[in-house]
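The records we work with from here on pair a chain with its fold. These numbers are not coordinates but entries in a learned vocabulary of local backbone shapes. To see the layout at work, look at the sequence and tokens printed below.

. . .
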Amino acid sequence: RPIARLYVSIESFQTDESQDAIDNVVLIDPADTTELYIALNFNSRAQGGAGIHFNPFAGRVFQGGYGDTTIRVMTVGALGTLGNSGAFGHRELNAMRGLAYHANSRMLYVANNATPTSIYAFYQPMNRNGFTRPTKVFRLGAAMRPWGLALWNDSLLVSNAGTGGGISLYAGLSQPDSVVADFQPQATVRIDGATAIRGFAFVDSLDLLVVADYGTGTPTEPVA
């Protein structure tokens, strides 16, 4: 039967051990109905949930952290239930945003929004624990503020949360061996009127791109 599940990363977390822990992953199941139902709350122990990514081929959910430099890895049961299975990180992952796992190359890509803005790649992330050196590092340049990630064959789509943002296509991910000092996009789609692009989704079979714009972050009063 069709399965439509949505995992949501929650930024709040509890530092006081005398208080109840805050669940920072929510499962919405099913996620294709008009009324969304929270089927599961889970504590991944992330110090502030950042980007979250589920890959069915890996059978894992990956979650970045805002308040630390650690990526949490969770197993996924047949009904979508989660279990902590590992945690690894690197000191430069100090502003993690989106994540994307490429099953064929067994590589996890992580967007980091701190200067120098970069994409980090980790080989076989399910087998990692503790401090882990990235397999590849792609430096993106000052104009790029990476947020969301999506894979398309051997290319990576990256949303730019900076001024004049859009979606950039970076090709040839498998070619570099280690560090790329100035990784340039092959193409960029600008979105007129967007002020703070965040996450997005790309459906290859439908040739459809859906983008979320955070806006100014300031609520506006309704016009009478």
